[in-house]
Amino acid sequence: MASAPITARPERTARLPWVFVYGSLKRGQYNQHVLQGARFAAVARSVLAWRLVALRRYPALVRAPGPSPVTGELWDVPDGMMTMLDRFEEVPDLYARHEIEVECLESDEEGGLAAGARLMAQAYFMPAALAAAGRDLPAGTWPQQD
What we know:
About 5% of the residues lie in helices and about 40% in strands. Strand 2 (about 40-55) and strand 3 (about 60-75) form a beta hairpin. The protein contains one helix and six strands. It has one domain (about 20-135): Roll (Hypothetical upf0131 protein ytfp). It is mainly beta and about 150 residues long.
């Protein structure tokens, strides 16, 4: 089965990335206000299976193989917001930002994304040593679905 092509809007530059969020920045979570000014694009999941752990109040993505892809949200961020997000995520002390491939799980008429579209997005990863006290979330979803 052929995979969907990686898509990106032509006007995007390295300064205007997509951001993949999987925890407290998602809609309905307690830090969603941090993304004020950004545009929700789609529910998405990582193409690769990464390790996702639950810490006391939030999850952490670890750059290590996990049992399943991680489900989250894809956001279109305006110019200048990445610097603010890096400060919020305490880069480089608590998290590091890396580019990953994600797949849209629903269509987005406004943004031109279709379900199944794959693209590159920025995601925040915690070093394994800092996430060691976390509880694994094998389903790749936070908050954990019962």
